[in-house]
DNA sequence: GCCGACGGTGAGCGAGCGCTTAGCGTAGCC
DNA sequence: GGCTACGCTAAGCGCTCGCTCACCGTCGGC
């Protein structure tokens, strides 16, 4: 919860780093289209149309349709890694850092679901060299989570038999949020983040957290 | 693990119900192609080629490419539901039935990964009416798992605050196996199934299993 | 031996794809 | 005002897509 400005509500639009304004509009349009229909089912005409431009305008700012996906995937993975690093390297016990990592990672997957969907599910649409770059980032993501769990095992806070397998399961659980989360559904990203942090603490054998009196308690 | 014949090793090929032999070959080819590259990136020429036929042969057995996906999705969801029903309606405590359900469901997602990938991730490529049919099956899948968890809560075996949310998380965890499982990776489907059954029992607050003597046994 | 049914092929249709190119309007500098 | 640089468009190229159609070989019934 240290990363308050990164929650969903009044979040900073994460595409401000994409500098010519027209290029950013095209990229945002591509994120929406890719998330909605998938990379291969999205046409360059659709992307340009959503950005209010003619089909040819896309090629002034991006060499190919795949370069668009690559930029999106790269920026998205940087963001995801940043979120986990902030939590993993914060102060506090392994328990607190794991809960923080899971809840903020889940909040991102739920609140920025369109981006997360593209980032997590359109990986094999990239060419070999671009995919290799992204896979390297994903290994760093895995390492951050594994690091927290190893800390917790070393300090005796966690009880985990298979650290690598549990790391995989924790990340898997968080990532799949991007598949099923519904913006118009009954749960807010914050609620899902809190629920998942609790479930993950149970998975690693940490003592359950029920600290607050009168805690919200999802019905 | 009552469903011994359904494990991965010498499993029954689940497409025997697809009756003209050529139609089955086409369908199996389509499953492989869809799993590898996604529905939209797969061409009818590729499917027919994998089945050793000319592109036109596909249309003798299926009206459209989408009908192929529909048949695959329908049969796959029937199978997944059958696996969960067998576990959910078996004898034994809620603890045993939940462990059985998770481990067999996970074994299916890992061992029949190509099928599971198509079934779980190509849902929105279906048209509205076909998708509605499949969504109804998915609601039944959800109900089976929720039923076991409710039983466990009622009997005091489980400690769960948010039954619907936990059900969602359990299914989410199992389904995502189809995304990351690698046939050439270090884990067998059976190992992942056992690991995940243990993790899920922890998630619902059931006493850990620890069959081996000399196990650490926290609390 | 002839015939119809059936499962298959080769060629190709209209459409839509990713992407290119020639040219245009405008803003900024002199 | 004259000129260049730049962002953008209209038109369209070459290609591949899902799908169709005219035709063909084989095989069981008579």
From TrEMBL, chains A, B:
Residues 20-80 form the HTH tetR-type domain. The keyword DNA-binding applies. Residues 43-62 bind DNA. Keywords: DNA-binding. PROSITE patterns: HTH_TETR_2 (PS50977). SUPFAM superfamilies: Homeodomain-like, Tetracyclin repressor-like, C-terminal domain. Pfam families: TetR_C_24 (PF17932), TetR_N (PF00440). InterPro entries: Homeodomain-like_sf (IPR009057), HTH-type_TetR-like_transc_reg (IPR050109), HTH_TetR (IPR001647), KstR2_TetR_C (IPR041490), Tet_transcr_reg_TetR-rel_C_sf (IPR036271). PANTHER family: HTH-TYPE TRANSCRIPTIONAL REGULATOR RUTR, HTH-TYPE TRANSCRIPTIONAL REPRESSOR BDCR. This is TetR/AcrR family transcriptional regulator.
């Amino acid at each position: 919860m240290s990363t308050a400005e990164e929650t969903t509500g009044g979040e900073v639009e994460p595409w401000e780093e994409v500098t010519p304004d027209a290029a950013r509009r095209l990229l945002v349009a591509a994120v929406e289209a890719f998330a909605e229909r998938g990379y291969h089912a999205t046409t360059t005409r659709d992307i340009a149309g959503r950005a209010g431009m003619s089909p040819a305008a896309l090629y002034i700012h991006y060499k190919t349709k795949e370069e668009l996906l690559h930029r999106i995937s790269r920026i998205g993975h940087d963001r995801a890694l940043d979120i986990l690093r902030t939590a993993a390297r914060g102060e506090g016990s392994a328990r607190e850092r794991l809960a923080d990592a899971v809840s903020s990672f889940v909040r991102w997957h739920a609140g920025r679901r369109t981006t997360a969907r593209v980032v997590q599910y359109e990986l094999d649409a990239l060419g070999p060299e671009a995919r290799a770059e992204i896979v390297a980032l994903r290994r760093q993501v895995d390492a951050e989570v594994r690091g927290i769990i190893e800390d917790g095992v070393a300090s005796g806070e966690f009880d985990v038999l298979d650290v690598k397998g549990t790391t995989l399961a924790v990340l898997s659980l968080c990532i799949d949020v991007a598949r099923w989360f519904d913006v118009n559904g009954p749960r807010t990203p914050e609620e899902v983040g809190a629920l998942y942090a609790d479930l993950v603490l149970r998975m690693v054998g940490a003592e359950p957290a029920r600290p607050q009196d009168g805690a919200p308690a999802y019905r």
